User: What shape does this take?
Amino acid sequence: MATYQGRMLEALGDPTRRTIFELLGAGPRSVAEIAGDLPVSRPAVSQHLKVLRDAGLVASTAMGTRRIYAVDPQGLAAIRGYFDQFWNQALAAFAQAAENPPEEKT
Assistant: This one.
């Protein structure tokens, strides 16, 4: 597995980070907004966001004194591409099986 996608998968391996990523899928949020939806502290949310940001899955922008986090479209495209390769292989195998069904034994 490529290192870049490996970091992404490792980052999403943690249930709290996965939940944060899913929350950001609904739209950008601040740390306080994310923490309000989770049973963890703001510092813990910040640490999880750092891991997600380092993995390339989220990006942040400054808005006044707050940082707003959102899903990084480039990171999302990379992880989707990783999973698409498996989907494409499965579809090709299915098409092969449908075109060449095994002969029945009588």
